[in-house]
Amino acid sequence: MSEPGVELRNVVKRFGTGQGSVVAVNGVSLSIRDGEFFSLLGPSGCGKTTTLRMIGGFETPTEGEIYIAGEPQGYKPAYRRPVNTVFQHYALFPHMTVFNNVAFGLQMQGVDRDEIKRRVEEALDMVQMGSMADRKPHQLSGGQQQRVALARALVNHPKVLLLDEPLGALDYKLRKAMQFELKRLQERVGITFVYVTHDQEEALTMSDRIGVMHRGRLLQVGTAQEIYEAPMNRFVANFIGETNYLRGKVVELAGKTTIGEITMPVVKVLIEPDTCILTVGTPDLRPGDAVTVAFRPEKIRIVDECDGLETNCANGVVADLVYKGAATTYLIRLAGGEQIKVDQQNTRAMFDTLYHPGEQVTITWPIAGCKAFAEEAEEDT
Amino acid sequence: MIAALQKHRSLQGGLLILPAALFLLVFFLAPFFIVLGYSFAERGTYGGVVWNFTLENYQRAFDPLYFSTVLRSGWIAALTTLLCLVLGYPLAYFIATRSEKWRGVLLLALIIPFWTNFLIRTYALLTLLRTNTGLINVTLMNLGLIRQPLPLFGNDFAILLGLVYGWLPNMVLPLYAAISRLDHSLIEAAQDLYAPGSKVFLRVIWPLTLPGVVAGSILVFIPALGAFITPALLGGGKSLMIGNIINNQFLAAHDWPFGSALSTIMIGIMLVVTIVYFRMVQKEAT
Amino acid sequence: MSATSVQAAEARAKEQVRVAPERRVRLGSALLSLHSVLIFLFLWVPIIIVVFFSFNESQFLAEWTGFSTRWYVEMIEDEQTIVALWNSVFVAVVSTVISVVIGTLAALAMERYQFWGKLGMEGLLYLPIIIPDIAMAIMLLAFFNLSGIGFTPWRLEIAGLRLSVPYSVIIGHVAFNISFVAVVVRARLADMDETLEEAASDLYAGPWQTFTRITLPMMMPGIVAGALLAFTLSLDDFVITFFTSGAGFNTLPVRVFGLVKKGVTPKINAISTVMLAGSLTLVLIALLFQRKGGGTKSIMEINL
User: Fold this and answer.
1) Structural domain range at position C40
2) What confidence tens digit (pLDDT) does each residue in A250-269 have?
3) Any CB–CB contact under 8 A between B189 and chain C?
4) Staple partner for C253: which of B18, B141, B159, C238, CB 3.0–4.6 Å?
């Protein structure tokens, strides 16, 4: 078991003082394993970039401590930390060639000329930019600049690599290609990557684990599957993927169920006007609590009639539909007036959709596929 | 010590600004207060300064003899500003709406005269405008178009012309900056909503370029009010502005207190006009 | 009424609507172009005429009697004028060097640091730019007179000529140039991406190394622009020099003013042409630097 790559203990960052102060990071504790690809995911303003900058040494925590490879970093400025950063807009030095950009960190560390030459060439080859060593940054495309920024960071063999939304400025296709390359690179080099993004698809595809942040707090840490299938609160459920919501009241507690390695309680909830469903719930729920039940469109099936025990059942009318080529999304209006999105793969080749607006349908979904959260003050998402 | 310096950013900053702060405090702020002090002092018998508090310098400034010049200077400066605005706005608009390549050339054609010596440019006008030996009058008379020389020199007309000539670029450059920053989609949107050209200008273009108008106006009004070279060379000794009177008081009449009072009044006018102008524009912008 | 003829009539009506406003627009833009051409002529013609008549045989500016360079010869042989030229250059060089150093440090302080009194300093830096020459000139005169310093001259010899430059003139030029240099360098600093300095720090560069390897080289175009501006303003200055120089000291503009008061001759045109050539050269140098440095702010916009 190696030392954790990066560890944060109760880190708080407050900007300003007194009345006008802003708490950007509010008590974040986190343990990133050595060699892990870890993503910090959240909407803009959630504190993920500030957290990254504190690891890098560009900001100091107001409270708490940051450890890199077991060592507390304290007030150490960036140039004393064994960490390198790939910045959002690459921050390549415009007055230096690609070669000198990549060599910069090595020069600052006093590495000798021949060694620098060797390592820079090695780094540039690794990102396939070897032929561009004499160009200046303004002569490169966005994707090329990004690769140079990567080489410039990696050439220093840091313990941890920080990436601040590095793919944000690239177009869609390039971004997809770079995601793949970055992941492969990380596996090859074996360095801990801490990756900040607001794009959930990006985080889900690339990361070993994800930390979801919102308003300065770390809401949940887990693998992509854990975050997606077992969100701990309404924000995480809403931020990742599509979600349907139904309001209801807890009728009674109904045992337990296990998803992966997590065991969760099951509750029976009454949905307007008179439908009862069984759903996974948070441990704090009691009979009589008002809850919101969240479940994903792809978990729902439209059937002729309900199975029975292990699934939930509801009746409704097709209100609208959206044909998306590979799938169709149906908007189903339930008896209580709420509207549910249902995703159906278009498995059969046909020039018509399976169901039409106005049709009566029955929908069903597994108990483990939905989750009840206590009603709370509306979070904006 | 070095380590302490590194830790405290504000100390570093303070050290960096120190040379400039000291220099300007000693050679700008102190002189300013000296002049202010002089304006309340008495003139000594042989031209020195006697430090007795008095308001007579300011009272004298309101004497019709001098005050008329103050008013006239203000009037000339205001007229200069207006003319520069009327002439400069279309020019700025023209340049801003040319293609990238032409804009560079045109701006250069504007900048070069601007960066040449003000005295030389005024001298150039002098050689053109003079009554009996100026190029314009001599040529027109030789061509038989006029019999008597035109009074283009030694009067307020010459001064106005000289001031507009000298300070027009000061108006055009900020205007150009403001116009070139206009979002053209706004103009297109207005046109899409049936606005004719004049309305588009009044309701969209003018309000949005107002900051440029203000900047340009102030950059013209202040030097025009404080003009010295232009009335000295083109005014023919008869037309004078505040600047010339101040010059006289300091270098000829040796009445430094009075000259200081005039200078303070001049700066006061500039301050008032600038503030009033800003407020007016702020109101119109909302 | 057949369908096609109705369509044709509609098309014709649409055509007419499209043409009429276009014609109005074309007329408007023609007037605009004419106006602009006239203004450019207005700005350039007097200058061109001065240059033109500097080569006039005759001493009367209004009649052209032939091409001659006699006035340039006269100018070169006029020792007072040559001394004035050297004085101008010397004062410009010295005041530029001093004001660039002070102004650049000030720009760094204002753009990158917070310190006590920053707001006041902001105002103090802008005042010399906004205040009219004559006010500043008498302020300096009063100060030098009261304090008793400044009129002492700096004696030196250049090119066989003995120069006697009062410190007061140099101080006066530095006083207004600091602000101009600061404005230009600040503009450049503000434009600079601060993440570059963070990137340098991320790559193990300490604060001093970051400054010398990253910040300073990137500031260079701004510093050069500021220097050129200060140099030009110093060469061109008349009013402040006039008041702070005491008796007998001439820079070129002061000399020209004195000559004009005595009487207008084409020798003044010759001097003017030389000064114009000098200004032109400076502008061209500035442009060359701008293109090479790839600076984003053009020098013209600095003036705004």
Assistant:
1) 1-53
2) 888 888 877 767 778 888 88
3) no
4) C238
Domain span at residue B184?
53-285
Q: In what order do the strands lie in the sheet with A37-41?
A: A83-86, A160-164, A192-197, A37-41, A209-214, A217-222
Does C235 map to a domain?
yes
Residues B86-131: tens digit of each pLDDT: 999 999 988 888 888 888 889 888 888 888 889 999 999 988 888 8
- Which of C139, C210, C231, C259 has the highest number of chain B CBs within 10 A, making it the mutation to test binding with B? C139
In a domain, B135, yes or no: yes
Between B60-74, C58-72, C99-113, the lowest mean confidence (pLDDT) is in: C58-72
Interface of A with C in 311-370 (CB under 8 A): none
| CB contact at 8 A, B123 and C272 | yes
Amino acid (1-letter code) at residue B229:
I
**C-alpha separations of A330 from A162, A233, A353, B146 in Å:** 41, 26, 10, 91
Model pTM score? 0.81
Q: Write down all domains in chain A, each with its CATH number in brackets.
A: 6-234 (3.40.50.300), 242-374 (2.40.50.100)
Q: Which of residues 161-220 of C touch A (CB under 8 A)?
A: 193, 195-196, 198-206, 209, 213-214, 217-218
Q: Considering only CB atoms, which chain C residues are within 8 Å of B35?
A: 135, 138-139, 142
- Residue C95 has a pLDDT of 96
Integer angstrom CA distances of residue A182 from A8, A144, A260, B160, B208? 24, 13, 28, 68, 46
Flag whether C59 is in a domain: no
Optimal mutation site among A81, A104, A107, A146, interface C, most CBs of chain C within 10 A = A104
User: Is residue B162 in a domain?
Assistant: yes
What pLDDT, on a 0 to 100 scale, did the predictor assign at position C303?
46
Give the pLDDT of residue C14: 56
Contacts of B134 in chain C (CB under 8 A): 61-62
Number of structural domains in chain C: 2
**Chain-chain contact of C44 with B113 (C-beta, under 8 angstroms):** yes
